[in-house]
Amino acid sequence: MNNKVLVAYASKYGSTREIAEKIAQILAQSGFETETLAAERVSGLADYKAVILGSAAYIGNWRAPAAKFVRKFEQELARVPVWIFSSGPLGSGDAMEEMKGWKYPKSLEPVISRINPRDITVFHGRANFEKMNVLERWMMQRLKQSGSDARRWDLIEEWAKGIAGVLK
Fold it and tell me: Model pTM?
């Protein structure tokens, strides 16, 4: 039986990619073969028993490659277990509360409901001011956000272990 899990991601500055890599690492430690790919590099899903998709979130939107991924592979995704995560908020509280219930772009709601993911979550992200353009830095300062790493690796690992448990 196929034991391969795809962890696809859409990342702007690398933070979401690093979360995807951590999830893949946890799954590999649990005995699964994993492949971590940028969403735009995925050509098909036939080789995978499950799919995890992550996207950076900016102002209520995902990165374009993640949105294209769910639209392009909707029928295939509806036939395998799928988990979805977004990364972005920079606070220190509960990421879901900080996003006021937002889990993914409203425009994708019909597609995601047909895919019927096992779980959808939001993780804190990282703001790297050195990589941001002038407008992004200005917006972050107006929102009083620091250029810090707010990712909670313990919560990311716990989520990935939960996925491994379901897949076993």
Answer: 0.85
159 burial class (0-12, 13-18, 19+ CB within 10 angstroms)?
A: buried
Question: Can you read off the two tokens belonging to residue 24?
Answer: 């893949």
Query: Of 102, 5, 110, nearest to 62 (Cα)?
Result: 102
Strands (E), the chain: 4-10, 33-38, 50-58, 61-62, 82-87, 119-123
On whether the CB atoms of residues 7 and 38 are closer than 8 A, the answer is no
Tokens 């959808």 found at = 120
Quickly count: other Cβ atoms within 10 Å of residue 168's Cβ: 8
Would you write out the chain's pLDDT as a tens digit for each of its 168 residues? 578 999 999 998 888 999 999 999 999 999 999 999 999 999 999 999 999 999 998 777 899 999 999 999 999 999 999 999 999 766 666 666 666 666 788 889 999 999 999 999 988 777 665 666 666 655 655 555 555 777 889 999 999 999 999 999
| Residue 143 C-alpha from the chain's centroid | 23
Distance CA 60, CA 102 (A): 8
The crossing angle, in degrees rounded to 10, of helices 15-29 and 153-167 is 40
Residue 111: CB atoms within 10 Å = 16
Residue indicated by tokens 């313990």: 154
